[in-house]
């Protein structure tokens, strides 16, 4: 399955590195990435492939939550189908 | 990126801060193959069939929620109206059937099971009457069983004998659960034009004409609609309607996605998506706040019925295209105890029972979760039921009454049911009697416009 990861929070050094590292450790492949700073706020969107990961999706979310707390950013992971359903006819 | 940033953040925000969720996956199960003639073996067959069909319902619902990242709040079961099943046995009282449903609900892990029901719009069979008379005990001695009675349709008119009987039954049910502020009545709905595929409790049952087993889904999302309207402050009302339509479309697409996936994984056909906006007592998940966002100082103010009519219609227009099959109740719910904005409006005197009745003319579902004084006469409850049923019958729509005459409580006091059932201020009821009308009994004839053949 493919999913979309969003990361939002106050900008500081090392956010992309930490999140990408977490993906790599969990064997999640990053397919696309887009990042910008809006009014001091760091926003990043990643399209990721979860085919190879050995973790359950709940465990991935837990890992991302822990990482988000450490980095003081909010990280979400949502199935791509949800965006397809809502935004594509 | 295959989606724009706006699209992505809109969806994430809907889920994370605007309470977008799928309110319920409800599995409808036919019990028509269960009766054997004997109560005990029939109940065994009912239990076995529910466990066989719905054994993995909760687990599957949770797995879908986790995978897609959309919360699915309830997993529930609706069964064939028990009066139809129980009548084919030698039972004199149907408590044993309620206890069987309760056991199946506990062991499948669902929080409510609906279908302790009878369809008596034109007349009642001995089995229907036994079920109705079993309601107070069945609803007081179980936690998860919900009952409903359909006593009117546009085609058949209104069964006034049952209208009178249900006033008494509601009082008895309240008394039987007096230690818990009459909570039994929160699990009992009286309908006109009841839909047979409604996934929402307490009125869900698996009607005649439905398949053996199917998956129905109820969407939600009042918080999402309110947030969308915050972006169009001061714009003309047609912009409001357009905004609601677009938002309802997106919400419903998420519901349809979950419904299709649940159907595939459980191996039962998809029935319908119910397009109702269902509030919860959580602040920010309120239908009343949507109406206030349109420009009302408080829900209940003049203009409320018009605003609700617009909301209900726009939700349908947006939702219909988003789902392959819509059904159930499909309308904005306005339960008093389950909606923070409605509670506030009653407490500050902006919203009365009469205004609520007017609002039910333009939306599903009816007078829902309304607490009234415990000394309200049974005939007055019946009068309220008759009025709602008449609105449904004449307007060819579903209406319902879920009213709680709270034992020992008076106007201005508060009743707390807890959880999703919320809390409600006890509302005043018109003190003039309708005893003479209700005691007549008989059948109120179907309206002339029901004869379309």
Topology (elements, then pairings):
The complex is a heterodimer of chains A (89) and B (453).
Chain A: E1 2-10, H1 15-25, E2 29-38, E3 41-49, H2 57-71, E4 73-79, H3 80-87
Antiparallel strand pairs in A: 1-3, 1-4, 2-3
Chain B: H1 5-17, E1 22-29, H2 39-54, H3 57-68, E2 72-79, H4 82-86, H5 95-108, E3 113-119, H6 126-140, E4 145-153, E5 157-159, H7 160-176, E6 188-192, E7 213-219, H8 222-230, H9 237-266, E8 270-274, H10 287-293, H11 304-322, E9 326-327, H12 340-347, H13 353-359, E10 366-373, H14 378-395, E11 399-406, E12 414-416, E13 423-425, H15 435-438, E14 443-444
Parallel strand pairs in B: 1-2, 2-3, 3-4, 4-6, 7-8, 8-9, 10-11
Antiparallel strand pairs in B: 1-7, 4-5, 5-14, 6-11, 12-13
Descriptive notes:
The complex is a heterodimer of chains A (89) and B (453). Chain A is an alpha+beta fold and 89 residues long. Chain A has a single domain, classed as ACT domain (Alpha-Beta Plaits, 2-Layer Sandwich). Chain A contains three helices and four strands. Chain A has a four-stranded antiparallel β-sheet with strand order 2-3-1-4. The mean pLDDT of chain A is 93. Chain B is built from 15 helices and 14 strands. In chain B, strands 1, 2, 3, 4, 5, 6, 7, 8, 9, 10, 11 and 14 form a twelve-stranded mixed β-sheet that branches. Chain B has a two-stranded antiparallel sheet with strand order 12-13. In chain B, helix 8 (222-230) runs parallel beside helix 10 (287-293) and helix 9 packs across helix 11. Chain B is α/β, with parallel strands linked by helices and 453 residues long. The chains are: A alpha+beta (89), B alpha/beta (453).
